[in-house]
Write a structure and sequence with these properties.
The protein is an alpha+beta fold. It has one domain. 31% of the residues lie in helices and 24% in strands. The protein is built from six helices and eleven strands. Strands 1-2-3-9-7 form a five-stranded antiparallel beta sheet. A four-stranded antiparallel beta sheet has the order 6-5-10-11. Strands 4-8 form a two-stranded antiparallel ribbon. Strand 10 and strand 11 form a beta hairpin. Helix 1 packs across helix 5. The radius of gyration is 17 Å and the shape is globular.
Length: 213
């Protein structure tokens, strides 16, 4: 993969207490805000909603962290992604407020090494939607050494990407990184998510009570 721009190191910040920070915090708690299915009734796996890009030395996977999507996952997978966002919530709120974002679109990026000293370029990620190309406004590393942009054989690096408010996940998307691109979201993943939402509503209605948190 072509070497990307040097990744800026982000220092951990305190939870933003400004009115703008409070608005962002509320939006992150419910990223879609409309007609959410209840969590805990889904059956999809993480691999069912991840977009994969394959390179000779690296496998890259990108997963939207929108509540309307991750609530279709199995209970354990759903909570694992929620915990991931919660672990960086202070940084997300602070950085979103700095960029004037009220409802940032969050994505989780993972990179897996297939060869020794494999290089990856995380800042080349582009998501195209409705005729517009989106680049992350901030990247929050989740693993030590992410900024070095190198992977050992079978090594893994990950980060949370913050995109602008307008990037919606309930429509076709094209994900590109370097020379690779994927239309899997609109081709099959979104259809599977929508089908699972319908099944979840049926399961929740049959259960008669909301699932445990």
């Amino acid at each position: 993969m072509k070497q990307g721009r040097t990744l800026t190191a982000f220092a951990l910040g305190l939870l933003c207490a400004t009115p703008a920070g409070a608005q962002v915090r509320s939006a992150i708690a419910d990223t879609s805000g409309q007609n959410l299915v209840p969590g805990g009734f889904g059956n999809l796996k993480l691999t069912d909603i991840a977009i994969q890009l394959q390179f000779p030395d690296v496998t890259a996977r990108f997963t939207p962290l929108d509540e309307s999507v991750i609530r279709t996952l199995s209970r354990d997978s759903y909570h694992s992604l929620k915990d991931l966002v919660d672990s960086k919530r202070a940084d997300i709120v602070r950085l979103a407020a700095q960029h004037g974002l009220r409802k940032p679109s969050l994505w989780y990026g993972e990179f897996y090494g297939l060869a020794p000293d494999a290089r990856f370029s995380p800042l080349e990620l582009t998501i195209s939607s409705a005729g517009r190309d989106y680049r992350a406004v901030e990247v929050i590393p989740m693993t030590p050494g992410f900024g070095e942009q190198r992977l050992t054989l079978r090594g893994r690096q990950s980060a949370i990407y913050l995109f602008e408010d307008e990037l919606a996940v309930n429509q076709d998307l094209t994900v590109s990184l370097g020379s690779q691109r994927s239309t899997a979201w609109g081709d099959k993943i979104l259809r599977a998510v929508e089908q699972e939402r319908a099944l979840i509503r049926s399961r929740a209605a049959a259960a008669g009570t909301p699932p445990a948190p």
